[in-house]
Amino acid sequence: MLWNYLRNILKFNRGIFSNRADTLYIRIYFWKKGILGDRKAHILREALTHPSYDEKTNYERLEFLGDSVWGLIVSSYLFEYYPKLDEGELTLLKAYFTNNNFISKLAKKIGLDDVLKVGKSYRFPVSDGTLADIFESFVAYLYLAYGFNKTKKWGYKVMAHLFPSEKEIEKILFSFDPKGKLQAILGKDGKVPRYDVMKDGSLFKATVCIDGKPVAKGTGHSIREAEKNAAHKALMVLTDYGQKEE
């Protein structure tokens, strides 16, 4: 009841709120979420302001800082909780958990899409790219207001809500490996892809064969890259012919 009353007083409407009420609303909102206290509210206002509302004072600079802070939090999380993963696997997972698709989900999870201050010309709904931007700017705010250790602790809690299981982690890693995916698809029918590689100047050219027949070709600066590109094209060919992964 109290929250609805305060919400009506502040006349909050689709992320646009008055200059007098904005800081108060943000504080109340995030106090209710149990996320933060009352520090450096002017930075918080900037972190949640879209360029369409204010071209000079908005989240863009904070986004730059937050991108690095969030990357470090994710790296720390993966390193701490997944000791069996090698460097390559950790790098792939970091790329997945710092991309716009995943970060935008986190932004929605903590309600940032509800408190974004935008200009009257802004067209809703808020895009995933913008959600990712304000999430990173919000992370920068937490870092500046509370320091890295508290921001890291907060980040761990937020990720825990959406972080995939170990089986899902395997699927994510698998998606970054077209050779492995091709092998798995063909393996269901007892088939094994063969890669024929030749060097052409400074490049390598790979041909992937199935049942002795060439299916796709790929090039690269290394044998591994050429085979990977060939496998990726082979997967596209198989999909085109209706052989879809289950």
Keywords:
246 residues, 58% helix, 11 helices, three-stranded antiparallel β-sheet, mainly alpha, disordered N terminus, Double Stranded RNA Binding Domain, 2 domains, 3 strands
Provide a quick synopsis of the model.
The protein has 11 helices and 3 strands, in the order ααααααααααβββα. The protein is mainly alpha-helical.
Could you estimate the helical fraction of the residues in percent? 55-70%
- Summed up, the helix count is 11
CATH fold naming of the largest domain? Ribonuclease iii, N-terminal Endonuclease Domain, Chain A
Structural class, judged by helices and strands? mainly alpha
Mind explaining what this structure looks like?
- This protein has 246 residues and is mainly alpha-helical.
- The chain folds into two domains: 2-174, Ribonuclease III domain (Ribonuclease iii, N-terminal Endonuclease Domain, Chain A, Orthogonal Bundle); 178-240, Double Stranded RNA Binding Domain, CATH 3.30.160.
- Helix content is 58%, strand content 9%.
- The chain is built from eleven helices and three strands; from the N terminus they run ααααααααααβββα.
- The protein has a three-stranded antiparallel β-sheet.
- Strand 2 (203-210) and strand 3 (213-220) form a beta hairpin.
- The longest helix has 22 residues, at 60-81.
- The chain is elongated and about 65 Å long.
- It starts with a helix and ends in a 6-residue tail after the last helix.
